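FAQ: What does the model actually see?

It sees only this:
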Amino acid sequence: MLSVLRNRTYRRLFGAQVVALAGTGLATVALSLLAYDLAGADAAAVLGTALALKMAAYVAIAPLAGALADRVPRRALLVSADLARATVVLALPFVSRVWQVYLLILLLQAASAAFTPAFQATIPQVLPEERDYTEALSLSRLAYDLESLVSPVLAAALLTVLPYSWLFAGTAAGFLASALLVRTTALPAPPAPEAADGRRLYARAAFGIRLLLATPRLRALLALDLAVAAAGAVVLVDTVLLVRDTLGRPAGDVPLALGAYGAGSMAAALLLPRVLSRAEDRAVMVRAALVLPAALALLALGLTAAPGAWSWPALLAVWLVVGAAGSAVLTPGGRVVRRSAGGGDLPAAFAARFSLSHACWLLAYPLAGVLAARAGPAVSAAVLAALALLGAVGAVRLWPREDPAELEHVHPELPAGHPHLAGAGGHHAHAFHIDALHRRWPPGPGQRGSRISRPSRTTSRP
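And it is asked to produce this:
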């Protein structure tokens, strides 16, 4: 897997991602302590609102940022987003009101919503080979998992010698280091957007959503994101109740349980490059998604059994499985997006996926929390298991088993002399993507997810 780091451009971009994630982890701890200083017993409510604002910013702003990525130099956009994040983080220690925290968090996540999809769309252009890109996706998954495991430990060590406000300085340093690495890296020029036809910014943003919803495998990817969000919300929201109240274990076991979830995710990320070299994305992702509701259902059954039937080792085992299955669904997602959009439309495609996947989390987070608080963790696990099952089954139905890259289609609306038809006639095949010239998915064998019953009134790329 590490062989992909021989690519100098990717190595520097991966370094930028790692230092930015490390800084984000420090900010998570510091923000919790800041909320406690400002709100005391209401700190949980403040953090919950901040988390909701984060998801709302991702959902609303990412598509616009993806459209903007087509109109400004990619490197300038990435560096500007990092500098904006560093500036906002440096302001956080000086706030004195809760509303100021909300405002700065909204600005911080808006910058992240601009950075992440543009960054994701750059990697396939740096690593055009499928094998290299798959390894990069696995490394990215590992980086996220390591951030969740290492950053709290690093924060705890720093807090023994520094006040928590200095953690924000560490976060800003991470963003500044990321900006420096990106600024000094020569990025490939992105292709011209294949959907570019003079439309305004909001139309380009809407195009990314339409691309995702009009492509069967991307609709299935959204259903898979729902399954992962449902399972992940139970882990991230309900773990503290399961460890402290249900099992009666000390607070120090909460990070151990979350660590089991992260360990499962990391193990799957390490194995996926080899697995994906032998199996199709659909087979791996759908089967892993079906594991998620099964694991949650097992948890719900265990919690409703006789008192004492559920054990600490059982919780660790279930969280390990949920982490591995979630990683097996999420990691190949970039491959599916890259396959489903032309090079110039990748920013819009990644931004739409980023936005709608976070909408799934925006639904799952409060649902898991409210159910756990009012009806107990067993009910929360059962309802979220049903939601995960809905997503997994939806993906099975939406993603055709036969899903070739090239699709045959006709263009009866084009004149005989149109350049696209040269040497092909009215009936031909090519790698099919939704774009300004392909507004509908063509009907045909294996395209169960399509509602289209007639050829589109569009042209296609030669």
